[in-house]
Design a protein that fits this description.
Number of strands: 23
Oligomer: single chain
CATH class of the largest domain: Alpha Beta
Distance between the termini: 38 Å
Bound molecules: 1-beta-D-glucopyranosylpyrimidine-2,4(1H,3H)-dione
Strand content: 15-25%
Shape: globular
Largest sheet: 10 strands, mixed
Low-confidence stretches: 797-805
Number of domains: 2
CATH architecture of the largest domain: 3-Layer(aba) Sandwich
Number of helices: 31
CATH superfamily of the largest domain: Glycogen Phosphorylase B
Mean pLDDT: 96
CATH topology of the largest domain: Rossmann fold
């Protein structure tokens, strides 16, 4: 399609939809016109992809995830269809502007953070690698809450992302399935003496799928993301005569749980987990039957991947259907289930390992409960002779009246992977060591990756153009080609152009900050960025302590020549996470104090953006100079903002944690600022029990001074929270060792200050980061999942050049 054809089609579509002249359209109408037009364009390929998979009986992977955080899809679809420039030019000729039109799209916040965004990057890479793979999740009526700051406190508002409809989805009522809850089950013998379950008094919910196309990059592949919505089954409305009764159904897919790694065991959450697991498995089974193959081939045609333990009920659900509905024996069903399912662990935080009380599962899912009990019984019976009672019981699925979902996920699958080398090592050697002894071959590492299409091509067009010009366009399909950029590490012209690209991105963000927040920031300052969920282990507080230290230094040395810094935060706290919300309030009050202090010559500014999400990340990341990855070593499973920031030329300032260890290894020690304890050092300190944070507070003058600021009235409006935060660090012995890492953190920042003053030196470091970001492309990560876990070969349409070493 050329520019003229596009213009013609756009105008025609607009007039069909709205009758009047396209020039009168609102942004929303312009967006909808474009959205429907694009959907029409990929519709034939969507259908064809699906037909081809069925015809060829291709192996397909289904990625089960409670969260998908796709971001807006307009530009991503245009890019992948190869239409970004055509549409942009065409709109311009019509007197419209693609960037403006794009603001008409809502950003669906159907995830909390890293885990949900990873799922979205993976969907893009699966399609772009030419792999047959689909997502399976929940169509939440309301996404993650909208964050507002009122007097510096986080307030949560509902996120009604569907208010204006959703152009990309297709409701597929004829593919709906029924999910059963509650009631009770009896096992009655049929005429052949086989026990068959009979369900009594169950609550039946209709699961209706909404499908969204996942368009591959320049390869004609269009896969599917299927999100399920809960409804009252047709003809059963009379069973729900009151609003309250009807609400019970609606509620199942109403809200995304706003907890990131902290869960309270709640009935509704369990219902959500079973709802989309069961609906997904049922629809896959129905599909498999169309292939008309023996059940023994099931694992050769279907892979089911569970993103963390939230979809673990896929395991007993698959067992249930294979046995109860398809008549397979336990042994046959178990073999198939294990070979089909694989599981990714995303965290070692104890509070995040899901456990459900036995009573809850037994009451809500009686048949599933029977199956879990039997899986557990057989596991114990089989393993005791091999591993003894102690180890075996430590791996039991049912323990102290709780169902341990990770244990079920490991026992019922053929693969468990961590998300970065260090994380996988910790799983094998500590957290899941007993399982590692039992099933060493199930364990493997798959370091996370991010899609460079969204995180470089779409969000950073300036850098994209520069790369295309300097190293050619091969990197777009083979991100390891970015390494060619190293040859230009001392090329003054390239470094200068890189500097200009960054400056433009910083100006763009500065404009946003001015308009939305009324804060003036200098685009030539260092933009120091920490964007991630607010969590004690991620140590945003350590960042604040550094800001306070720097602030008091500048107050005492107003003529210092340190470069200007803008500290940029983006973070939501789980609504029930009191401490995290206190940190938010602290950051906002520190920002207020510093931004309004005329005596420091604008040497520091603090910007805490409201409602951080994918769209804001796309604005902030290209503008970053420093990427703060400062979690306590051993706690961050991987991190993914670290990869996005690196690919956009930010320098990482970090502990050796998660995938940042691998970033360090690729980029080299001269191009990254590492500080703090290593995981081994943290372990030693834990074991020795020799840490006394109060001692550091009393003996380290710098720490003393900064911590006193929290309680001596230096920071306005923090009387209540200041003391609590101080106590967490001094009285309660600083669980995440902020004070232990404080000095080396300050030191790392000093090195960054010095380097930034030499622009060419800094730009060279930025260039080296971009050049070494290729290995963190999700295309490679997905290639390894497909090859080593899902046992799938990419189709002929595969666009991925094999990763180099
Ligand atoms: N993660 O976002 C979540 N939610 C959880 O409940 C548990 C973990 C994060 O997953 C990311 C993707 O693997 C990781 O990069 C990140 O370290 C982890 O905290």
């Amino acid at each position: 399609m050329d520019v003229n054809q596009f213009k013609e089609r756009y105008v025609k579509k607009f007039e069909e939809m709205y009758a009047f002249d396209y020039k009168e359209g609102s942004i929303r109408e312009q967006f909808l016109t474009l959205g429907y037009l694009i959907k029409n364009m990929y519709a034939p390929e969507w259908r064809q992809t699906s037909d081809t998979y069925l015809e060829n009986k291709s192996k397909q992977v289904f990625y089960f995830s409670m969260e998908f955080l796709p971001g807006t899809m307009l530009k991503s679809n245009l890019l992948n269809l190869g239409l970004l420039d055509t549409v942009s030019d065409g709109l311009k000729e019509l007197g419209l502007n693609l960037d403006e039109v794009a603001t008409g799209e809502m950003d669906p916040a159907l995830g909390n953070g890293g885990l949900g965004r990873l799922a979205a990057c993976f969907m893009d890479s699966i399609a772009s690698n030419g792999l047959a793979g689909h997502g399976n999740g929940i169509r939440y009526q309301y996404g993650l809450f909208k964050q507002k700051f009122i007097d510096g406190n986080q307030i949560e508002l509902p996120e009604n992302w569907l208010r204006n409809g959703n152009v990309w989805e297709v409701r597929r009522e004829n593919k709906a399935v029924t999910v059963r809850f509650g009631g009770h089950v009896t096992l009655d013998e049929d005429e052949n003496g086989v026990k068959r379950p009979e369900y009594h008094n169950t609550m039946n919910i209709l699961a209706v799928p909404y499908d969204t196309a996942q368009v591959g990059y320049d390869n004609g592949v269009v896969n599917n993301l299927r999100l399920w919505s809960a409804e009252i089954p047709y003809g059963e409305e009379y069973l729900y005569p009151t609003d309250e009764a009807r609400d019970q159904v609606k509620q199942i897919t109403e809200y995304l749980y706003p907890d990131d790694s902290n869960y309270e065991g709640r009935m509704l959450r369990l219902k959500q987990e079973y709802f989309f697991s069961s609906a997904g498995v049922q629809s896959i089974i129905r599909y498999y039957k169309k292939m008309d193959l023996d059940w023994s081939f099931f694992p050769d045609k279907i892979a089911m991947h569970i993103n963390d333990t939230h979809p673990t009920l896929v395991i007993p659900e698959l067992m249930r259907i294979l046995m109860d509905e398809e008549g397979l024996s336990w042994e046959q069903a178990w073999e198939i289930t294990k070979k089909t399912v694989s599981y990714t662990n995303h965290t070692i935080l104890q509070e995040a390992l899901e456990r459900w009380p036995v009573d809850m599962i037994a009451q809500l899912l009686p048949r599933i409960y029977q199956i879990i009990v039997e899986i557990n019984r057989r596991h114990i019976e089989k393993k005791i002779p091999l591993y003894g009672e102690d180890l075996t019981y430590r791996t039991a699925i049912i323990d102290h009246g709780q169902i341990q979902m990770a244990n079920l996920a490991i026992i019922g699958s053929h693969s468990i992977n961590g998300v970065a080398k260090l994380h996988t090592d910790i799983l094998m050697n500590q957290t899941l060591h007993d399982f590692y002894l039992m099933y060493p071959n199930k364990f493997n590492n798959k370091t996370n990756g991010v899609t460079m299409r969204r995180w470089v091509q779409i969000s950073n067009p300036g850098l994209t153009a520069l790369l295309d010009d300097v190293i050619g366009t091969k990197w777009k399909k083979a991100p390891n080609e970015l390494v060619v950029l190293k040859a230009f590490a001392n090329d003054k012209d390239v470094l200068k152009r890189l500097d200009e690209v960054k400056l433009n991105n910083k100006k763009k963000f500065a404009k946003y900050v001015q308009e939305e927040m009324g804060i003036t920031i200098d685009p030539t300052a260092i933009f120091d960025v920490q964007i991630k969920r607010l969590h004690a282990y991620k140590r945003q507080l350590l960042n604040v302590l550094h800001i306070l230290d720097r602030y008091s230094f500048i107050k005492e040395n107003p003529n210092t020549d340190i470069p200007k810094r803008v500290f940029i935060f983006g973070a939501k706290a789980a609504p029930s996470y009191h401490y995290a919300k206190q940190i938010i309030k602290l950051i906002n009050e520190v920002a207020n104090m510093i931004n309004n202090d005329d005596s420091i010559n604008d040497l520091i500014k603090v910007v805490f953006v409201e409602n951080y999400g994918v769209s804001l990340a796309e604005l902030i990341i290209p503008a970053a100079d420093i990427s703060e990855q400062i979690s306590l070593a051993g706690k961050e499973a991987s991190g993914t903002s670290n990869m996005k920031l690196m690919a956009n030329g930010a320098l990482t300032l970090a502990t050796m944690d998660g995938a940042t260890v691998e970033i360090h290894d690729y980029v080299g020690k001269d191009y990254i600022y590492i500080f703090g304890m290593t995981n081994d050092e943290v372990q030693t300190l834990n074991e020795n029990r020799t840490y006394h944070s109060r001692h550091l507070y009393e003996t380290n003058p710098r720490i003393n001074k900064v911590l006193n600021m929290l309680v001596d009235g230096s920071i306005p409006n923090t009387e209540e929270i200041g003391q609590d935060i101080f106590d967490s660090l001094v009285k309660y012995n600083d669980e995440y060792y902020l004070l232990q890492d404080f000095d080396s953190y300050i030191e790392a920042h000093k090195r960054a200050d010095t380097d930034f003053k030499d622009r060419m030196k800094w730009n060279k470091k930025a260039l080296m980061n971009i050049a070494n970001a290729g290995p963190f492309s999700a295309d490679y990560t997905i290639h390894r999942y497909a090859d080593e876990i899902w046992k799938m070969k990419p189709g002929e349409e595969n666009i991925l050049l094999q990763p180099e070493a």
